[in-house]
């Protein structure tokens, strides 16, 4: 099994809740960003929320890199 880190916004055109639910059963760490699109932009023009989401993703990515 592969290990990895998957980030996707629930407003991304690629997002599929059923597929993400299946991926939770794998070795992937998954972060679904609420109201984020493919570029992880949150909402319409919610710059502060977008920056906070990306900061959270970077923190989790650092954890993944440290443990692997």
UniProtKB/TrEMBL annotation:
What are this entry's molecular-function GO terms?
hydrolase activity
Mind listing the UniProt keywords for this protein, alphabetically? Hydrolase
Keyword Hydrolase tagged = yes
What is the protein's name according to its record?
A: Alpha/beta hydrolase
Native species of this protein? Bacillus cereus
